[in-house]
Amino acid sequence: MRIIRAKDYSDMSRKAAGIISAQVILKPDSVLGLATGGTPIGTYQRLIEMNKNGDVDFSNCRTVNLDEYAGLGPEDPQSYRSFMNENLFHHINIDMANTYVPDGKNIDSEGECRRYDGILKKMGTVDLQLLGIGVNGHIAFNEPAKSFSKGTQKVTLTQDTIESNKRFFEKAEDVPRYAYSMGIKSIFSAKRILLIAAGKEKAKILCRSFTGEIEPAVPASVLQMHSELIVIADKDAMSELINVAPELVENAH
Ligand code: F6R
User: Which of 65, 73, 172, 253 is the most exposed place for a label (fewest CB within 10 A)?
Assistant: First the structure.
């Protein structure tokens, strides 16, 4: 596990984009696992710039996204498919046919979970999985639970998550209550995992996830067991972890 402290959001985004672009330069046909939410937007902006400058070529990459709101179709501006199109895919030279997001409009939830797991299986190992972290420790939409999930599931969002995500909607009632989410076992099977975090509201959970017990009540804590985990967090998100376990943090000065 490597925990790297970034100066601020922009520094975190630059560092994360640097790692993703290095992955693609070293293996042009990489399978990238991608996340949505506020945290990766700056990383995606950097990747767009790098792609436009000719520094990184996504034409042979394939991507799988972590999750999608149940009930929202690709045309819905709040869907994660729209988010990915707007914030990354439409601005880089990726083949859209090689980008995968669960189908939120599929009302056959078991069928959709099976279909998405089938896609993941066909893709093979994810080379680099980008993750954010929820204030309750969720990764993808795997909320605190009694056991770690395995494959894709239809999940019920917790009140914490609805509260955090309402900023992307007009009002809290508009936030969907369910989502399709890749399971923890699938996420964990990626060769490398890059978790990014920014802002004071992530300080407590970041510290808890990487210095505390490994338990499904804190889903991100399982990542401590991954042999190729990189965590990049800005000073605010790192503020508690750096007090509790400064020895874990690179450039802790
Ligand atoms: C999104 C996802 C979520 C977010 C998490 C943090 O695809 O899987 O786990 O990474 O909710 O969201 P932000 O970045 O908005 O704080």
Answer: 253
